[in-house]
């Protein structure tokens, strides 16, 4: 049975469906009766839920957050829609169609991943080759790489976003490298493939987008460095030590790819390759952020709302079709 | 007769050649004799020159700066090379091979310009088309466009640099636009063609690179705005008024293409096209600056000297050939 | 009939008057009936309005925003006043006393404008004279100049504010120029007259204060530059070309009058006149902002609320009467 | 006998005059003979001096720095002028015409001071009146106030500069206060009179311009605060206690008159009067700095050299005579 | 009778207790009846209060803010608790147990103060000794010193906080001075004792924490300077003048102890002692702020909420017990 | 035979000693004879050296840089001392007393290291214990740890400086931890021990102080992270895996210990322990820098020269002996 999305529920409608419950709280009314206030969510939004005649047992059993099947009815209360819950039961995550709850890229991730591998096949340098192959051979990691978002907010913040961002930046690099013959092209490709790989560990994206403890304490730049060392150690154990200059050149790009100290790069770019990766990454993220903001807002307005990180509103009127 | 370049003169050598004289000063020795101290320059560097037994007449006749033919001899004085000038005569700029005195792109500017026009021929939007054609038809301006440097220092600071930078950024735009289908491609191409057109007026580049008064007081961003208005006024006079939205969209990209207030942009980018032009411009300028710094320094050293505007030294060691 | 102002409506009062309607939305109740939620505004504030038993036809006819005559009744709902609308009809802007809806200077604008012209009559330099006369002769522009606010928020944000600000800064300049004899006084007066002239185009101020598209994309500094070029082109067509040095000196003051890059000036002041205009403009704007903030707040409190742009609260206690 | 100024000495000239000696050092030649290297200075510049056949006794007797009478001869050594000193004798500061050694305002300081007192006589508020009179009655302080420079470098850096700056800012305030009737005018005048009074203690200006230890450790803002308290304590001892609100309002202007934290103001302006004093002070200082820079540079050049604190070169070409 | 704290009131409970009333407003209902809306507060939080059937007489008599005894009943209204007030009467502050209304250190302030004096007894330098004794002998000031908070928000914002912060920083100084033998230890101890003494005057802390007018206009740094001068003047009157170098060295530490201009220090540290006081002060304030934020938040969460002044959330998970 | 230090050589003295030769260059005189210009250095400074009648063979054999034994004579040339070199021969680094060439701590490093180990023995937590022991057992690393400087410039820039800085910060931590009982003390001690351990790899310090390529490309923060992972991997291989929370907590302190993004920390402190390590590190570095600057300058002057990184001159006058 198809999920009824939050943004399509009408007032006075019967509701019998699975939702993500968040921040349930047990409260008592002025008459002393217990009730549960909660948010009911899917990928299109969230509504207040109220379960009257609740008990501590019901409350304690609820996941915080997690999936529940609810039966109830929608109503308008003080100009806002809310859902009166009559029955609530817990649903195992494995039974849930996650796509209903987390936004996901509209692109075909298998195709994107294949194209990423095709581009990476241009890398002939034996040292980089070995390192990249070590990553590609790590099935568990590649599965995460295909699923993770590229960020919690701002840009490519949907399942598959990391892959989509990596795919697009690799394509841009392939397209422009011919115009910069002094730039070491294979190093650029390898670095772009790995520049955000730490996000697979920095973020959680099973039932909602958030940071892991490690992610928040270390950041994806430091995590990428540790992951590359891990792979290099494996190669060294197989007598294929990556030489120091290759490791340094690659690690430097990872460490400097945010381009400025205040964006969390502990080093500023010091090679042509580091500058190129910094610009391509930033270009792709910003264009994604800007076009998403334009797409998501009122199509009748010439300007979007104020975009805090860009310090401007965005102009939506076009001169081309 | 081929020019003997400054950086190839040996001590004790006879010198009989044309140089650019700069900052000549008339001084007297402790015995009261007059002499002229001056710099003698070409595109490879400058040396101190000394003309003993000078007269006020000779001094007054000297251009400040300008070209002179000198006869004399090189010598080491206090560990530095200098040139003892016996005869000096003024040379008209028209007689001088300017290429010996100003650095020039190594590329074929006619070919670059033809390719620029080829790329611009992709613009079908009638409004942008008319505006671009108006610029291309301005022979005097196009001659300057093919000759001007892109900057006095930092990046593409050589004759033809503006054309080379515009050519390269147009190529980059053509290469990456397919990956960003929401971005208005013709607007991007038109804006890149014009983004630095104000530099033809901002800079002087006849015998050395400097700012014009107007250039220093207004900057090339404001000058580009006025030049575009000039062309649009011409079109309006021919009953081909450019509509307001097209003018605004194009002007906005010019005004915001430095991307940050502190780099002299009075507006921050507010359209996808403005972001794209900002990034492509900055990428091309930085890669040119970085690779030039790497090429110009001691080839035996792993690191360049400190690059003030980049706040780092640059690493010169490669992993690819 | 005098308008009843929003801030004077009492609960339970009959309302039969013209208001500015903003952001009307058609909604349905839990029972499926349609109603319209809207804001009803004048220059003293805004209230929620509700029209029950609405139809799509009524909704579609409403201006968004615009003026309407409403009949209804005020009531308290959830501690806030709202207006229950029984009848609503559209009113043409020409029938409306705009002064009820937009704040306006308390000064006599004809008198202010006459004094501005008197001060400008001190300009004897033929080039500046011609340019200023060209502006003064543009009746349509002068009408806007007398009507426009100086800003949407912060300082002189009321009809006639641009004129009042220009008038006051001209007076300040006349008063202090004698103490700075090296400063070119006529250039200062001309520049002050024109420094914010671009605001006539940057802002809309017919039914509420906002930015035009061009204004938001270009800003009033760039617009002033284009307007001055327009007038200079007219003069050139009449064989009265303004010389380059005069144009540059004037344009430079316009481009640098915000004094810092981060305030949108693409150039920093580089002449005594540019510094003077920058300081006089800023002084007048800040004193207006500060005294307005002090006047508008609770007269019993010694301190105003936090002023975000000034990073402080303001002290209201005086030592003089 | 008139002093021969440093910038007028010709090579090969006999020198028999008083100079300020700075940083004398006793050195030995390769043959082991002792000589003294020193700088010889007046208000027009400084030259290297060399005294061959020196002794430790001569060296020890020299002031470091201080005034000396030297006899010797000028010569060119390695393209620079230097003075060979044959005799050197110490000169008491009281015998020296300090005007030859320290730059001094060209204005009549007695006249300026009288005009300052005239302006201050407008202050009728009894509290401010008492405080100002207490300062004016302090003869020793007023003598310093008439002599001190307003700064070591940058603006009004000459004897009498503090008075000249205070005189001019008071005049500007009197001229513009009528346009800002809400601003408390007597408070503004009192605050301007005292805003830089701490410089009398912050700086030394007997034989050259420098900071006192206290000045460098506390700054003139903190010193002004302590000086005002001193005067208020005297008044309190005479039963004329200044009330707290007056003290606070005045002290606040002193503490905030640099307008920004990074310029050493521990408080940001929070009253209209504080904003006005901040702007008038800054305007007067900047116009003085800018016009001085323009006057002091090569009159043939259209642009001055780079002005570090202003982040620009200055344009010298005028449109008015 | 023990106070019932705000955060322990249940819905439907009879309330008969003293609260701090804040911002009472007299309003009329839609039927025209008068009622009073107010906040009722203690140190654990605040609730909305409503008194129906109010009169202007009752309203006028209310302190704004101040203590009142109220009788009434709690209820839930629109999901928030509020208190319906039936009777209200004013209570004199002297009758109130302030500890119920203002947070207070959990430490024994008499013991802390004794330990502070013990540490200060290490100061043997006669000049510093005399100055410190002058402060310690000022009973009124020392009473405030033992009561004042160290800040309104952020760190040590509770009664006794200033003493607790001073006590802890003195202890830290005593502990680390042995590792820095070049640092003048007695000067450090004296400066730490006095570094925040101005907060006794900067803040009010009788019924709630706020700034005094003088505090807000001058700041505690300037106030400390004036207080030290006061004490030094007393000593001078007793023929025990503190020498200039001692005054300068101490005052400099006060003026620079925030370490950066943007934190309100008008001088940057220029002595080892100034650096040490700056670091010890900042360390103690930050650790207090961080541990308080960790203690005050949900004990089940691994991370606190976003801490604006620290630009991060804080991690609560420990590896030690 | 004791080394004659550069700063003690007198003019006209015979020189027969070992020096570090830097940047030798082969040049020809105006007569065409070859000579070698070079710098001759030890830890007290450097002088110009000149070897006339040089050959290409001699030049090619010279280390660049490295140690040489020279025979020659000192002389004054153009007011500077230089050394005329008659014979030059290469000296193996192993034969050189490095202490003559590199500054070294005056403390006993064996004693310091023993005390470091004593303090670390307080760590009982089994996970941290295992990790610290792994580091202490790495003899090669510990040898570097005892030898490395803490920085190239600024603070503790001498052999043994890293150990001295680590020793002092550990002592400070032990002294102040009792005043902050909520702070996890063993985690602080472990983190301080390792916070700069990456400097053993970031810097070279065999014949002069410089950065390694890896050091310059990655920085010591990233290197410490990789070194800790290396040790943790060893432990995991021995079945003593360090748990994630311990690794995260420790790594976070390393990554954030510079306290601000602009100082190269990719993360801001988010735990009490991270704040404490940041402050202790900064305090110790600054006090070392400040007292060194004061010790190294002219003992007669009250103020040091301008300290660029501190944005002030330092005051040298004391009130205590």
Main sheet record of chain A = 5 strands, mixed, barrel
Helix/strand/pairing class of chain A, anyone?
alpha+beta
User: Which ranges of chain A are low-confidence, i.e. pLDDT below 50, for 5 or more consecutive residues?
Assistant: none
Strand order of the largest sheet of chain A: 1-2-3-5-4
Q: Residue share in helices of chain A?
A: 40-55%
| Share of residues in strands of chain A | 15-25%
Give the SSE string of chain A.
EEEHEEHHHHHHEEHHH
Distance linking N and C termini of chain A: 39 Å
- Annotation, overall tally of beta strands of chain A: 7
What is the overall number of helices of chain A? 10
Average per-residue pLDDT of chain A, rounded, comes to 92
Principal-axis shape of chain A: elongated
Radius of gyration of chain A: 24 Å
Largest interface: C-D, 48 and 48 residues
Summarize this, please?
6 copies of one chain form a homohexamer. Chain A is of the alpha+beta class.
Describe the protein in words.
6 copies of one chain form a homohexamer. Chain A has 321 residues and is of the alpha+beta class. Chain A is built from 10 helices and 7 strands. Chain A has a 5-stranded mixed barrel. The first copy, chain A, has a two-stranded antiparallel sheet with strand order 6-7. The first copy, chain A, is elongated, with a radius of gyration of 24 Å. Chains in contact: A-B, A-C, A-E, A-F, B-C, B-D, B-F, C-D, C-E, D-E, D-F, E-F.
